[in-house]
């Protein structure tokens, strides 16, 4: 392997080829240092050292601008004492160095004794050689911005062309700019990682480790305390609270805190089951019980035998099925649809609703005896408005989950977290989680500021208001892309429908024929829910 050329003292009468060898040696040594370390402190100081030793460019210094300031100071130097470096302070436009900083243009002073702008600030004239001294200052730039100045003294008596020195110094200034820019990027990434680690550590400190429920607010701890007091009993539990407050997590917590934790936990959303399928879904059916029942199937109660059955939105149960549910809860037995044999089941029921069941009882929409059976242990879940101190911990949890799910690296600044805690979140935890996931996906920055968060929040809120605009009754299906039926505005009664449509019965029949008797698809084509469609069929005397 070829050895690098040996240094040639600048005082010797070097030829042009010798100077070229010295330049190659300097670049070889500098790039070797870059390969070993990207630290500007190490590379830049040695670069200034080699400039002096190999090329006679003495008292080299790198002057850098201070962040968010118009001042600059000597940060790296060779051939200057500590006191001389300390005196090297410059304002933009001040002296030769300040002018290079302000203009981004190189400056060459052939004789510092005849340049009135030369300040002699860091090195006094008496400390310099008595012969003619030149001064060269080049801007250090990155991404079109001037970061600092690379400057040095040069003796006019040297047998080396000035243009050669300038060409080499431009290369070294470019290299210095790249190293300094890289240092800034690494520092910013490190700062963001430290901020994120701090946020995660704070989230871990505030996170309630029990049952996966996050938070430590008094309202949450009170609900958890009530849950643990009744967890070992087998009585029914009724979870009350606004939509999105985490009823499923609480139901699972009831299961995990009980002696049934190793048995099945079955969750059923009553609002998502068509009325005609309720009985089959809950209690199962025998083979041939109805068209399409090609085999016997156990219902949710049988599948939850020995464990816990969670009925979410229990207020949506059809009135006719409530009596059968009450009998199963009281006697611990059930009969499959189309069957004759009673089967015993051991199931603990946890029900949840955001409706006022007592008002439904008064209105005749919910059986009073079933209400009392479910309401043995009512637990009210707090909304996010009542546990604002948990919002930041919840937000950090959702950010971490969204980052893992979507391979992102997004974090929130402390000011952004505070802005989240000041919102009301009418949709509670579900709304917060959906917003955080949208934020992670749409953010073009690794660190989301308060202003960016509030801008996306305003867009989300305006979009939600637009989505809640009532749609015309019986709007075509194409007017409801991706919208769940529950979000639709209540359809008018049949008498209103008849007043605005000439042949409602014919339209209902036509929709059924077009979808081969499938009521769900027929209802969707008319912009109705299944229950609204069935109601119109009954009113029209159709089956």
Kindly list the characteristics that best describe this protein.
alpha/beta, Helicase, Ruva Protein, domain 3, disordered N terminus, 543 residues, Beta-Lactamase, elongated, Rossmann fold
Structural account:
This protein has 543 residues and is of the alpha/beta class. It has four domains: 172 residues, Beta-Lactamase; 165 residues, Rossmann fold; 79 residues, Orthogonal Bundle (Helicase, Ruva Protein, domain 3); 51 residues, no CATH class. The chain has 20 helices and 15 strands. The strands form four sheets. It has a six-stranded antiparallel sheet, with helices on both faces. A five-stranded parallel sheet has the order 8-9-12-7-13. A two-stranded antiparallel sheet has the order 10-11. Helix 18 packs across helix 19. It is elongated, with a radius of gyration of 39 Å. The relative contact order is 0.06. The N terminus is likely disordered.
């Amino acid at each position: 392997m070829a050895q690098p050329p040996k240094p040639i003292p600048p005082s010797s009468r070097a030829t042009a080829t010798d100077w070229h060898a010295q330049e190659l040696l300097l670049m070889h040594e500098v790039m070797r240092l870059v390969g070993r370390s990207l630290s500007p402190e190490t590379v830049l100081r040695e670069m200034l050292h080699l400039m002096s030793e190999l090329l006679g460019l003495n008292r080299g210094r790198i002057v850098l601008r201070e962040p968010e300031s118009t001042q600059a100071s000597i940060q790296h130097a060779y051939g200057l004492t500590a006191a001389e470096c300390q005196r090297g302070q410059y304002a933009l436009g001040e002296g030769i160095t300040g002018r290079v900083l302000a203009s981004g243009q190189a400056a060459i002073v052939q004789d510092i004794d005849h340049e009135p702008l030369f300040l002699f600030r860091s090195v006094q004239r008496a400390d310099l050689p008595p012969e003619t001294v030149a001064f060269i200052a080049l801007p250090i730039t990155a991404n079109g911005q001037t970061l600092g100045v690379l400057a040095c003294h040069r003796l006019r008596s040297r047998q080396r062309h000035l243009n050669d020195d300038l060409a080499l110094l431009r290369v070294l200034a470019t290299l210095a700019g790249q190293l300094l820019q890289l240092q800034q990027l690494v520092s910013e990434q490190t700062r963001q990682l430290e901020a994120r680690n701090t946020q995660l550590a704070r989230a871990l400190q505030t996170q309630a480790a029990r049952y996966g429920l996050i938070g430590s607010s008094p309202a949450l701890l009170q609900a958890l305390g009530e849950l643990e007091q009744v967890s070992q009993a087998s009585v029914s539990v009724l979870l009350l609270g606004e939509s999105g407050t985490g009823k499923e997590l609480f139901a699972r917590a009831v299961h995990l805190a009980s002696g049934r934790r190793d048995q099945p936990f079955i969750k059923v959303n009553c609002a998502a089951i068509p009325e005609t399928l309720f009985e089959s879904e809950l209690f199962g059916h025998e083979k041939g019980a109805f068209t399409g029942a090609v085999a016997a199937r156990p219902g949710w109660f049988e599948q939850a035998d020995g464990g816990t059955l969670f009925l979410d939105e229990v207020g949506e149960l059809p009135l006719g099925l409530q009596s059968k549910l009450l009998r199963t809860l009281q006697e611990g037995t059930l009969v499959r649809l189309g069957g004759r044999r009673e089967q015993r089941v051991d199931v603990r029921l946890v029900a949840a609703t955001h409706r006022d069941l007592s008002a439904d009882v008064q209105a005749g929409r919910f059986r009073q005896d079933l209400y009392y059976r479910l309401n043995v242990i009512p637990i009210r879940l707090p909304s996010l408005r009542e546990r604002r101190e948990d919002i930041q911990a919840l937000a950090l949890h959702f950010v971490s989950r969204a980052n893992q799910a979507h391979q992102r690296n997004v974090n929130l600044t402390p000011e952004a977290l505070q802005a989240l805690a000041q919102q009301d979140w009418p949709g509670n935890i579900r709304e917060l989680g959906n917003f955080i996931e949208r934020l992670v996906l749409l953010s073009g920055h690794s660190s989301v500021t308060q202003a960016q968060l509030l801008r996306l929040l305003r867009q989300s809120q305006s979009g939600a208001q637009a989505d809640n605009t009532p749609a015309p009754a019986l709007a075509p299906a194409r007017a409801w892309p991706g919208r769940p039926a529950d979000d639709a505005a209540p359809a008018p009664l049949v008498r209103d429908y008849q007043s605005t449509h000439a042949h409602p019965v014919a339209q209902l029949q036509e929709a059924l024929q077009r979808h081969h008797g499938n009521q769900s698809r027929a209802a969707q084509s008319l912009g109705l829910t299944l229950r609204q469609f069935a109601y119109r069929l009954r009113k029209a005397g159709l089956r």
